[in-house]
Amino acid sequence: ITYTVQGWMQSNGDLWQVNTLVKVFDKYLGIDAKMLIVETDFTMSIQDGTKTKLVLSSPDSYTILEQPIEANTGGGW
To answer: Which contacts of 47-50 are long-range, i.e. CB under 8 A and separated by 24 or more positions?
Structure first.
C-alpha cells in the first residue's frame, strides 16, 4: 500500500524511516494494523511543500518460514 503524507516527520518529530512499524487505520480499505515501511520518497515543492510517499507492507511478508525436512527414503532419483 502506498500513502502520501504531508511533511517529512512523524507526529513525534522523527523522520519517516524504512524498516519502521507504523500504526495504520484506513476505514476505506478496512486496515487497522501495524505496517512496515519498506520504501520512502521525500519531495519538496513550492506548491505542495514537503511530502513523504510511504510504501507499506504487512510485516508478515518478511517472516522467514521454516522449511520442513524431508525424510530420506533411500530411493534416490
So the answer is: 49/6, 49/7, 50/6, 50/7, 50/8
Write out pLDDT tens, residues 22-67.
999 999 999 999 999 999 999 999 999 999 999 999 988 877 777 7
Q: pTM score, two decimals?
A: 0.76
Burial of 8 per CB tally in 10 Å (0-12, 13-18, 19+): middle
Distance, in Å, from the CA atom of 18 to the CA atom of 6, rounded to the nearest integer, reads 17
DSSP string, 45-58: ETTTEEEEEEEEE-
- In this structure, the chain runs to a length of 77
Q: What share of the chain is helix, strand, coil (3-state, %, to 5)?
A: 5, 50, 45
